[in-house]
Structure formats: structure tokens, C-alpha cells
Predict the 3D structure of the following.
Amino acid sequence: MAGNVFGARFRVMTWGESHGPAVGAVIDGCPAGLPLSEADIQEKLDRRRPGTGACVSARREEDRVEILSGVFEGVTTGTPISLLIRNHDADPSAYYALKDVYRPGHADYTYEAKYGVRDHRGGGRASARETAARVAAGAVAEKLLGRFGVRIDVYLTQIGPVRLRPEEIRPEKARENGLRFASEERLSEALRYLDSCRAAGDSCGGLAECRVTGVPAGLGEPVFDKLDARLAAAVMSVGAVRGVEIGDGFAAAARLGSEMNDPMAPGPDGRPVFLSNHAGGVLGGISTGQEIVLRAAFKPTPSISKEQQTVDRAGNGASVSIAGRHDPCAAIRGCAVIEAMTALVLADLWLEQEGARADRL
Amino acid sequence: MAGNVFGARFRVMTWGESHGPAVGAVIDGCPAGLPLSEADIQEKLDRRRPGTGACVSARREEDRVEILSGVFEGVTTGTPISLLIRNHDADPSAYYALKDVYRPGHADYTYEAKYGVRDHRGGGRASARETAARVAAGAVAEKLLGRFGVRIDVYLTQIGPVRLRPEEIRPEKARENGLRFASEERLSEALRYLDSCRAAGDSCGGLAECRVTGVPAGLGEPVFDKLDARLAAAVMSVGAVRGVEIGDGFAAAARLGSEMNDPMAPGPDGRPVFLSNHAGGVLGGISTGQEIVLRAAFKPTPSISKEQQTVDRAGNGASVSIAGRHDPCAAIRGCAVIEAMTALVLADLWLEQEGARADRL
Amino acid sequence: MAGNVFGARFRVMTWGESHGPAVGAVIDGCPAGLPLSEADIQEKLDRRRPGTGACVSARREEDRVEILSGVFEGVTTGTPISLLIRNHDADPSAYYALKDVYRPGHADYTYEAKYGVRDHRGGGRASARETAARVAAGAVAEKLLGRFGVRIDVYLTQIGPVRLRPEEIRPEKARENGLRFASEERLSEALRYLDSCRAAGDSCGGLAECRVTGVPAGLGEPVFDKLDARLAAAVMSVGAVRGVEIGDGFAAAARLGSEMNDPMAPGPDGRPVFLSNHAGGVLGGISTGQEIVLRAAFKPTPSISKEQQTVDRAGNGASVSIAGRHDPCAAIRGCAVIEAMTALVLADLWLEQEGARADRL
Amino acid sequence: MAGNVFGARFRVMTWGESHGPAVGAVIDGCPAGLPLSEADIQEKLDRRRPGTGACVSARREEDRVEILSGVFEGVTTGTPISLLIRNHDADPSAYYALKDVYRPGHADYTYEAKYGVRDHRGGGRASARETAARVAAGAVAEKLLGRFGVRIDVYLTQIGPVRLRPEEIRPEKARENGLRFASEERLSEALRYLDSCRAAGDSCGGLAECRVTGVPAGLGEPVFDKLDARLAAAVMSVGAVRGVEIGDGFAAAARLGSEMNDPMAPGPDGRPVFLSNHAGGVLGGISTGQEIVLRAAFKPTPSISKEQQTVDRAGNGASVSIAGRHDPCAAIRGCAVIEAMTALVLADLWLEQEGARADRL
């Protein structure tokens, strides 16, 4: 319960600091007999990796994953899957100057308030580096879900002030650009904005949208482990996320019931068909069988080179300017993490559903 | 893991259906030696209770709580606290007509997809009735937190289209009106809107804001049990909530890092003082010691008397109009539930923090 | 984690004190669609109940169970099943004299050391009364297991010094006598011994044996949640139990490997057949498909009317003689509790096994 | 819940197969600020290591532990502590002949029945190799407990038929010999017996006793997480253990209440003093402050070179003789594992106790 374990049946424990020797994840509860290779995981890690161009941090993270256990002759054995990713190119000396100062917008002060000590090198455990382990574990969950036809798509609809109108969103375009931005037409606008942020020594926020297809009706555990509650926790647990919504989300506050309720009609196979999806694929915390739709708001990367006012550990006023290579927009890399967390939630609830009905035991 | 247990150290299991004999909660992990009476809990239940006037459901729920265990001679003993609330005034015959039809916006279809069976009477476990048990358990958590000076305030800043601008919000006014609306000046506007909804056989959404004072720096368990992640899950687990945000929330997506980061300055007692609170009191998933600020968007009550298109269990098209007494705006009563869930998260994380530091053991 | 929750997938929380208004259990995770009635549970409670004759406590506990939730039209709905048993015939005044004294062999002193307070009436939560809730919850688990052909038999092979030799054990005889003693021939000997204990104001221990048939190979979760580890915890959690063994148990310490290993031979249906069962039906923490065999040693009931030396809360020396109606041999009623705990473990691990293999999802 | 996680507050996940690249453990919940080095852990691993002479397996396991996270500048930081032990000297070809045959007394058949697949190399996850990770994690727990003055001693009182009478047991002697045998006088007898086993291609069982001093009154969480229940699960989860008892254990079945209850008298510091310790330091599942005493029976190592009857995966009869270097008596190395598991339980319950009393928050 110290916070580094996620899930109940498809359970993951992650570990590792930004500038320690490695980060990793151990998965307990992955069903036996699933074909799994390092390449399956590597593919997802590569998509998280800093890309080319001005968009993302230039830190060269090779992020080679090693599977240390739980896979034999190419399939999972039902025993824990230990995943290891060595840290490279991590020069802690760059952070030495920040040893005694609390960076604004970072967890430096709060970790120290909580634990009395902290690993100051690059944010330690609070670094975005930690998410590499999530992505690795999420890749295994996604491999499992893929067998059932589940597909997860995450893309940005907003970068700073460059916000796509609903009719402008083209999820398929996000796969073609390094920004995961769901538009071809407004891509250059977004790039220009990122350049201006970087030039100003500043950073910007963004909005990610996640759509999941292929989830059957019936996943999610009321009352407290509702599918949407679990997704909200999963997504909000990503460091830079400040808000989560499902379906119509915050817009629902201004809706009428007659606008919000999704009517149903007889479907071709005898099952009901929903005529709209304001609910975002979840009713009463249980999947409806429709597309699951959620959105996550990312705050700007807190590491900026602009000078900021702060204090040091001795309580004296200080000013800080964070040099180094940082993503100007954490939301870009964040997409891979949202995808991973969504996969972890769905794999967990999928296994939960096994055993929910006496007539299927 | 079937979803009816909340928390790890201050752990609550709730049970009960809308039209069964009772609903209840059992708390395991409340520290021994806490003065506690039924009156402490009753006070919170009364605030959740349907009020007078046009605003909330007219169902007369007496909601008398009984403490069946865990309290001896007025103090908690460390053993489980069992809370029972009998259901009254629950006429299942009113729901008999809905036995075979899936109400739009309700969990009728999804419960059946999940479990194969469902208690159709008033929504069964998916009814808002379930939240009475949360409020009862939350009252115990709040009693515990009160000892440490923690105070939780929840109020509405929006009812349907009637939305308060930031400068109009007056939290203290929310305690004076049955709507928990944080304004005196625009209260009549909100009431008129609710009346119009009711007259039209419709319902509306709302926006709740929650502010917590008195939480010291250091609460929250990174990586997955971050304070904000736990709050997001807690709040999203309330049936009608569709979105959650912390601090600047969704607005952060359009911010610059230099705007979003909260600068720090030396404080009077040697501890740093934050000069703003865009973070909403949480950094890296750990409380900063500032006010915790979150917002939750409620969808409109799905039960409306307007006719809606749907299907029945046999797969035939049907139309449904839900008669009976329903809150036109679920957000109003929802405030008490947000308060309870926030208290449960904080009590749990408070106890988690005990034992986090070797120098304090 | 405060200790009143058992199981992960078939999860039970129990509550209640000996002399409070009631005891109860809430089950979260019972599969939906299981036929269940109060009579199913009552039958097990009745078998736990004080019988006739000299053997067991004369306290008249009616132990009527009420199902307050989770069952609709005679079948479980997948939502929590709340079970309530009112306490009757509980005269706390009888215990008032013991308010300030620590009874030897009881948990009076340890509860106070732990919690700082205690409910002194009849032992409060530490009373054997607590096991009524276990038996009620276990009955639901046993109902579920019965669908799969699992059968649990618990009987005594020793009462005080009256110990059956292996060849004397007749499990079927245990159902015919109020002592659950697995012998007809030596029953009168056991009864005479119990009478002598009672006459001397003393109590005695006993040995229970549990045999489970119908469990297929494959249940149990290595490494820490092995079937035998889970059974050991379950059985040792019963207050008076002081030792647990599986299969050959303690005798294995003196065995050779060639005596202890169970050889296998081809079976009629292509599956292997074990030629002996020294393992007691568990290898590597996973069921073999053979009969599961465990034994539990019960200490004597600590409540005796013989005078004993002790201290009071103020730290003064005292002597105590515990009047009232107490079972001279806790093992007799303990059989029903061992049966319940075994059922809870097996139901939990049965549901765990759902989802363990990708080829069966 | 797939079985590889232990503990709630001091939580450990272990992973790794006998002949995979490594085994490891991750600890989540170790308090921050605890001095910890690889040497602290190495010392315990070395004591588990195969010794010299005829007593234990000759496999050369270097068992060098690496700390990959959670420790910074020599102290724990409160974040997960990842421990890695590379596997050496593991020649899987030795096991290739056993690929398709179920070894009697091993988990080959049950793993396959459970998971459908298995890593046949050296028993995979079911190998005693897995316990290296437990010992590493236990060393951290023991370091924490050492701060509070807790000391754990485990030694053998029986090796095969060589059984020490109570008055012969000399725990301090166990530290001086490679067998952990609590006697100097009867050591050569035990060694001769082990030699005869080895010569006959056979193996033998043993009995371990564990004594813990320095535990204050108040640890343990009734009802289901009693100190003795948790210890029973912990100890029984060690592969070769077949029985566990606390205090008088199985002997209690033949005791009178007046013999078994431990009388109390006023102590020098105002606290009561127990005049005997039949309870083994636990009453009502909570520590009494006395020495905790438990015993564990180990079965003989199932790997023997004597020919045994079995079946292969195709269902045909087969005979098997397991060559290679195996401990003739698993109990010898098992002592280090019992010590580790005991430490893990106590550290976990120690942290649980933090937060149990409102007057100490």
C-alpha cells in the first residue's frame, strides 16, 4: 500500500529512480500461456521514447527491456514477469546544483516532507522516468487484451492553446507525427507553438483523448472499483495529469437528462444498440460495450529554464533556472503512459470478471 | 475486489440495495480510542437527506443509523464498526413496471450484462441509495480528521447552465441554502432553473467544488496511490460524476509552465510558503500543506419523466417514462457524498503515513 | 488490513462483539446466480450451536441469521451479501466482575496492550461468539463449492487424553454424536473425560481432522498464497487453535524421502493416479486432485472455574475463578469453524483460478 | 493475489525461476531513513548458502545481491527497494531428461495442472531457489526490527530420527555448526544419519524451532490477521514445511485448561509478568510481550536418486532417479527461510500497529 502496486488480479509493482541503475516492473497475475517476447514490450517503449525534432526531450534513453522471469519458450508461465530497464545517459552531476533547492512545480518539497529524505538526482522516483516501467507493464496487458480484440488509441487534441475543435480531430493522423497530435492541418501550428515555448525557456500543457474499442459489456466492479473510477485513478496517477473525464465529462454539468441519457434500440443480433454515447461507454461503473472515451489534461512540464522564485532546504529564498533537455510538453510522451495505464485497468477488470457469474464457473 | 471495499488502512465495506431491508457499512481499521456516537453520523446523514422544497427528491428517508459494533462506552475499540440504516418508504411496486425494461442512463443493462441477474427494484445496488452508507462511513472518517484540524467543504458552483464565475463563489453561502449553492445572489436563478426542469419532466447536471484545509504536507503514496489519484477514484466512483480535476485541472492544458508552477518563499516558521496554488495542494501525489482543491462534474439524474426510447430484456423496442419522486439535480445531494469520499481518502492516507518514516517509529 | 477481512476474491468482513447487539459478516465477491436462502446458512449455524448434554456450553444462542442484501428472488446478485445474527441471552452483568482483571489464557491483557481500551463484556471481539459470523459466511462458500462436488468433513480424533489410533477413526460416526467424535466405541470414554473436566472446574483440548474431497488439481497460488499456507492461516486464525498440519504433517520430520514422496501411476482416464497421499493433497502449494487432509490442535477453553493467579488493570495481584456456562472442550464447536474456514479458502482460490490461463479466457 | 506478494504494509513481491537469469524481490513500504547496505543482506544470504561438508547441496550459488533502487546515500528513501540476485552455475541441461516426467513429491504435475505450461528447468518457480529472494527481503525486515531490539533465532531440534529432548536443546550451539543443529553432543549422530541418507540416495525431514525476543505486547491484527495466523501462513508457505505450531502446539490437545493457561503476577515495572509461556507469546492473536515460540516440520527433500515410480506427460508409466547435488535435509537451509518469513511478518505487523490508536496519532 505504499503506492507502488497497481491492480488486483493483473498486479504490477514498479520500482526505480531516475538516476539509479535501473527501473523495472514485476507483473503478478498475468495468465499463463500468453505468447510474449521482449519485442512486444520494446515496441511500446520505443513509442514512448523521445523522438526527433524539437518536440521532445533529447535525452537518449535506449530503454532496452529485459524479461528476467515468467516467460519460458516464448509464453508466459503464470509466474511473475520481471521486467528490467537499465538507466543510461543519466548524469547525476547535472542535478547536483539542485541538491538543496526545491524546484517549483516538482515534488522535491513534498517528498522531503513525507519521507524526511529524498533522492535529489533528477527527481528520483518522482521523475517521469518512472513511467517507462508503466509502459513496459502496460505492453503486457495490451498483448493480453489484443487477444480479445481490444484496441486502445491515445492522441492529443490540444497542445497549449492550439486546441482542435471536435470536428477537426483525426485520431489516425496522430500515428503519423512525433507529437501524437490528431491533426495534419494544424500540426505546424502546434510545432510553432512548441518552438516558441522552448525559445522562451518555458513549457506548455496539453489534452489527451483515449478511445478504447472492443470492450464487451460487463467490465467494472461496482461500487468503488467502477470502470470509470479505476480509469480515473490510473490516469490521474500519471504525474502531470490534473484532470480526467469520461464521455461528456465536464460538459455534462450543463446538460439536461434528456440530452445526456443515451437511448437504446433493438440491435441486429438481439442485443440493444445505443443510439449515442454521452456516457463514454460506462454506465453504473460497468462497460456498455460501446467505445470507451476519456480525456486527460496535462499540466506543462514543470522543468523550465526561466528563472523561478523558490526556497532551499535551509529555508532561505532562492532562485532557480533548470537547464537541461526537457520535453516542453509532457503530454506528448504522456500518451504512451495513458495507453499503458488504460491497458492495465482493463486487463485487471477483465480477469476480475472471470468468476463473477456462477453459471459460468 | 468485487468493488465494495474502499481504502486500505481505514477500510470500508458497504452493502445494500435500494429496496432491500437495509443498507450499511462496516469500517475496519478505525483507530481505537476515538469518541464516537450515532449522533456524529446522524448529522452527516441528515445533511444528505432530501430537503424541503422543489430541489430534491421527496422520498422520506429517515435514515436512522445504528452502530452495531466497534464502539464501547462512547469510544471506538479498534474492532470493526458496523453501521446499519434500515430502508423505509421503499415501495418496490412502483418499480415493477420497469422490471423488464432498461432505463436509459441507468445501469440496468450493464448490471444484467455483468451478472446475468439484477435486482430491478429501484436500481438495486446501483441506486443513489447506496451512498447513504458512504456518508455514514465518511462521518467516522471526518470525526477522526477533525481531531487533526482537517476541514472539508463541498458546494456547488454550477447548476445546469447557472454557473458562478470564480469571483462570485461564496462557499459559506452554500451552508445556508438547500441547494448547497455557493451564492446568495444567483440562488433564485438556480431555483427557477430547477423548477423549469421539473416542470419539463427533465433533470440537469451540476458542478461541485471541494476544498480541504488543515492537511499537512506529506500525505499521499506515490506512485499509484497518489493523493490526487486516490481522490479521483473516490470521487469518480460516485455514480453521477463524469469528471474530476485538481487545482487548475483542465485549464492547465492551456497554461505555460511559468504560469502553472507555484513559486515558494521563506515562511514565518522556517517552512516554505507557496505564493499561489495552481497545483490544488498536491505535488507529485503528495500534499503540499496548502488547501486541497478539487472539482467534480455531475451528470443530470437519469430518471426523468420525459418519454425515452429504449429496449426491453427480450430485445424489443420500448419507450419509458419514469414516474416518481427524483432529484432533478443529483449534484445537490452529491455534495455530501463527495465530502464523505474525500474524508475516507484522507483518513486512509493519514494512517498510511504512520509508519512511513523510520525516525518516527 | 486491521484483520477483519478474509480472502481476496471471495472476500468476507466480519464484525461484532460477544455482548453487543449483533454479530455479522459481509461477503463481497460471491458469484451471481447462486441459489441461496437463509436456511442454507441456518443449517450450518445450528451445527455450531451448543448441543444437548454435558458436552457444550449451555448458553442458548438462537443464532437466527438474516440476509440483508445481495440475494434477490432466491439467487445471489453479485452484490455484497450482508448477514446479521442478533445476540440473545447475553447478560453482560455476569462479566462485570471481570471488568478490571485479566483472565489467564484470554486476550484481555493483549487487547488492552494493543488498543488501549477494550470491551470487557464476555471477551468482546475476542470471544468465540465471533466465529458465528465465520460459520455463516462459510456456509455461503460451501454452497458454492457444493456445485462443484466439493465436500468438507471435520471431526475430532482426540478429546483431551482420549486419542483415537488411526485405525480407530470413523469419520461417519462423528455426524451421529454431539461431540463430533469420530468413534462410536470410544465415545463414552470421551464423555466420561469431559464430565470429569467439568466436575473439576477445568477444561481440555482436542484434535480436529479435516478431509476435503472433490477438489480438482490446480487450486492454490504459489508462492505465498499456497493452498496449504492459506489453509494454515485460516485454521490458525481460529482462536483456540495452536497447531496445523497438512498430510503427514509433523510426522514428516522423521520420514525418508522415499517414504514421503507419493508415487504416481497411469490412471484410467489418462490422468495420473497417486498411489499414496502423504502430501495431504497439496504439492508445491497446489492441489493434486487427491483428498486434502489437515489437522488442527485446539487448546483447552481458557475459561475455567478453578481459581487462577492473575493481575488487575492497576497492576495488583488477583485471583480469578470464571463462573458461568462454558464449553469444557472448545474443539467440539471448533469443528464447524474449521469447516467454514476451509470452505472460505477453497472458494477464494477457486475464483482465483478463474483467469489463471490465457487459453481459457 | 496470484500469490507472489507478501505483507500489507511491509510488502514484498518476489520473482524468478531456478534456471532463469535471476531471482529477485521488490519491497514496497519499508520506512524511509533506515540505514541499509548490500552487506546487510549479503550476510543473511550467506547463511542460507550451501555450506561445506556432506550436509547441504554442493551447488555453488554465489548469491550476490544488488540493490537497484530505494536506497540513496546509505539509507532507505521510502520508495521500492529492488533486490536482484543473478543465477549462476545453473545448468538446465541436467534437467532436460526430466522435461516430460513428473517427479514424485515435486510440484511438476500440479504446476502443469494449474497453468497448462511449466518451466521444467530445475522446478522453475517451485524450486527452493525461490527462497533466496525471501531471505534477501527478510534481511531488510530484520534490519528494521533490529532497531527495536527484536531478535530472531531459528535452529533444528530434529534431523530425521535424531530428535533432541527439550532439556537437550541448546540454541546457541546451532550457530556453530553447518547443520544449524541445536546440540553439540548429538551433532555427530545427526551427521552420521545424514551421511547414511546420502549413501542410500535418500533424504530426510527435520524440525525447526523459532524463538523471537524483544517483541512488545500488542502486535497482531485480530480476527483473521492474528500474529499466529500470519506466522502460520508465512511458515507453511515455505515449500517443504508440512506443519506449524505455536507455543505448546499439538501438545495442547492433551492439556487441561489449568495446565495451559499462563498465570500472571505483578511485575517490577507495574506491568504484569507471565509465570509460564504455554501460549508461545501470543494470546487472541496478539503478542503478549513474551518470547514468541513456533515450530515447523520439514518434509524430506523430494529430490532423491533412489528410483521412483511415476508417469510422464503423455500419461505413460515411468521410473525416475534424480541425479545431481541436492540437500539431503531441506530443513537445514530452511532455517534461514523461516527466519526471513518471521521477520517479514513482524515488520508488517509492526507497521500495522502504527495508527492503531487514536491517542498516539
Notes: Chain A has eight helices and 18 strands. Chain A has one domain: 5-351. Helices of chain A lie at 38-48, 108-115, 131-146, 171-174, 187-199, 227-236, 257-260, 330-353.
